[in-house]
Amino acid sequence: MPHIESWVPVPAGSDFSIYNLPYGAFSRPVSPARLGIAIGTQILDLHAVASAGLLDDICDRRVFLGGTLNAFLAEGREVWRRTRLRIAALLRTDEAGDPRLRALDTAKFLVNQRDVRMLLPIEIGDYVDFYSSIEHATNLGRIFRPNGEPLMENWRHLPIGYHGRASTVVIDGTPVVRPSGQRRPPGSSAPVFGPSTRLDIELEIGFVTGPGNAMGTAIPTSRAREHIFGLVLVNDWSARDIQAWEYQPLGPFLGKSFATTVSPWIVPLDALDPFALPSPAQDPQPLPYLQAGGRWAYDINLEVDLQTKRMRDAGIAPQTISRTNYKELYWNMAQQLAHVTINGTAIRPGDLYASGTISGSTADSCGSLIELTWNGERPIVLPDGERRTFLEDGDTIALRGWCAAGDFRIGFGSARGTISPAR
Length: 423
Ligand code: MN
Known about the structure:
The chain is of the alpha+beta class.
């Protein structure tokens, strides 16, 4: 990639190099939400950029004046591409740059990330969660059906998923209240009611959609790129005890609908292209509507950090409990989108489709505690001697994700949540 410098300083190791330019929404105290683009430690205020007329030749400036990205997502790939090129031009210093912004009072266009609250940048209409990591599905099969085939018969033929709950998708930093519900204690024949005692995480990446399709039509894998805008980190918090009792025969319900945390920044697929790879081979070959050419795997490093309240109080840094990568996912985004729409369902701008838990092939690369601790049999030992199987009140989980090449990074920021006691 050509070397590009920005006049906005980008500290070494920052997730937000000029190659990234992810979209988010922010608010200053007592101000309404605005859209912005992260660069270094700053946010470029898209409301201000659009109001200065610097995007008027690309699309109606009102697309950028609201508090969510949905109108922009609806514009489609050509507008996304031109906007991204324009923002890069306004921020870069070389002769390919556009000097118009730098000629203005730049302080009016930049906001320090420290001084704002980040907000959910999309109004999410529908949320779907898949189950597309073969390592994760195999691990759970081994835990729950130790004497059977780990993978269900259908798993290699279609990307399994369920419709989740859009209203409880929340942004990085939002506290997660421990859910209460029905669970059936081991060895008991009757359920009890109370706070979940097996509260878990799921490390995932989700894609955010742009233009929808007409109801009754499908989106072929070859057209997926026109409909997928970008990616976010997703933590699909899961109450394993509630889930285990309720899930048969219709699948996950209240064990997963109480909170889903996403990172504040949506990284455009255009930014991730240099990190695209061919997807892993599939055996057997899927049905024709699920066959996808092209490079749909992305080399995104993923990490899960855990810090307990006691660690926080003692000044002990968060412990990384898992490291993995998005590139091994068995079912890719194009296949997921083709499958979701093959029955004629309509998707809309701002829908969220999460990958399912991303687990690698080693014991320390799993994306959930149920796998990392093998159903609670092998507790994680933390630096202060504490042990964890599932989450305790006061625990903070932070997901991180980034692509790295040479001296720059394209990152998502974090998706954090701290567990509050059940109400
Ligand atoms: Mn999930």
